[in-house]
Design a protein that fits this description.
Elements: H1 3-20, H2 28-49, H3 51-64, H4 66-77
Helix pairs in contact: 1-2, 1-3, 2-3
Length: about 80
């Protein structure tokens, strides 16, 4: 296993442990820290192993951080508040 995949697997374990610890701010600070460290790791994975494995790492990271991704999609798409 390459260094980038090892670091990404370690990031995933840390992210899951961080999600299990109770928080008063609804895990916002942890999510920001995980995003700030996860995005460069995804880039490193893509650089070292290729774009397809990088996309799989991105999908794995998005599944771990699903609520920040959902909020971003609502913000970009308008949140579905507009009437058809």
């Amino acid at each position: 296993m390459t260094l980038s995949l090892t670091l990404f697997c370690l990031w995933a374990v840390v992210a899951n442990v961080a999600a299990m610890i109770p928080s008063r701010d609804r895990h916002r600070r942890r999510a920001v820290a995980l995003i700030a460290t996860g995005l460069p790791l995804v880039g490193f994975v893509a650089y070292e192993t290729g774009p397809w494995i990088g996309l799989l790492a991105l999908a794995a990271g998005m599944s771990v951080l699903r609520w920040p991704v959902a909020y971003l999609m609502r913000r970009i798409g308008g949140g579905g508040d507009a009437a058809p």
